[in-house]
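Consider the tokenized backbone below.
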């Protein structure tokens, strides 16, 4: 794992964008795994700038998003599909038929903590097959939850898990409630790539910014590899980059080089 500490969020975003842009220029049909949330917004802004000013071409890039809330249609302003369109896809020359965001709507379905409708399982298998069809994910972008989650793989998630339904923890619902009018509107379930799915990506770029992520970053980079911190699995990935700002790095014991 290569840990890169930058002095501010903007440099984190620019470093990640430069890494990705280089990969897209070398392989125009790159298979790119994408994340939502606040952290990658600066990266997406920089990729849009590179598209507009430096001719970065997305026309053959294929994307797979990590996750989607169950119960939100794509046009809902809090769905991850909507987020991706508003913050990236609408501003670059990506072909929307190359874009994959797990679907959140399944018509009439039954779902509770013990029973998942087979329609959802079928979709999850299709998503995994679709990733394989494109030869696997070349680079996966990740954020990290304040509890160490990656995608919606909350603490306790199976380390070998594949795309499936997860119940959101209380902490994640509280963290995400800032985007909803009231707490009751925050969805209870999501479809998410599993930790095994993420680990199959050929490269991983995990981003984190701010002091609120310092504990999670320290557990992921220096803690034991444990299901209680899903991001700690990145320690055994063959090629992962953790790009963070100084506040997010503030609880790391080892000395990492800070680039300004
Ligand atoms: C988003 C996702 C989540 C976020 C994480 C951090 O697709 O899967 O794991 O990456 O919750 O979110 P932010 O960046 O908003 O702090």
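A designed sequence for it:
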């Amino acid at each position: 794992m290569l840990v890169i500490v930058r002095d501010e969020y903007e440099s984190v975003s620019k470093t990640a964008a430069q890494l990705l842009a280089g990969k897209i220029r070398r392989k125009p049909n790159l298979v790119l795994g994408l994340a939502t949330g606040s952290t990658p917004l600066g990266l997406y802004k920089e990729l849009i700038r590179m598209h507009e000013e430096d001719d970065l071409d997305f026309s053959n890039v294929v994307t797979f998003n990590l996750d989607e809330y169950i119960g939100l249609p794509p046009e809902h302003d809090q769905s991850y599909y909507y987020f991706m369109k508003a913050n990236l896809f609408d501003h670059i020359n990506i072909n929307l038929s190359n874009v994959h965001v797990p679907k959140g709507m399944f018509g009439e379905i039954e779902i509770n903590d013990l029973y998942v409708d087979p329609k959802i399982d079928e979709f999850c298998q299709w998503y995994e097959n679709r990733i394989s069809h494109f030869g696997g994910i070349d680079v996966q972008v990740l954020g990290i939850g304040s509890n160490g989650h990656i995608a919606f793989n909350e603490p306790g998630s199976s380390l070998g898990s594949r795309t499936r339904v997860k119940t959101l923890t209380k902490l994640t619902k509280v963290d995400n409630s800032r985007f909803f009018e009231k707490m009751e509107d925050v969805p209870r379930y999501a479809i998410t790539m599993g930790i095994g799915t993420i680990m199959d990506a050929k490269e991983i770029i995990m981003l984190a910014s701010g002091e609120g992520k310092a504990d999670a970053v320290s557990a992921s980079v220096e803690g034991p590899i444990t299901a209680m911190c899903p991001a700690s699995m990145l320690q055994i990935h063959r090629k992962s980059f953790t790009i963070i700002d100084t506040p997010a790095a503030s609880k790391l014991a080892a000395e990492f080089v800070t680039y300004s």
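Residues 35-39, 66-67, 143-145, 149-152 surround fructose -6-phosphate (CB under 6 Å).
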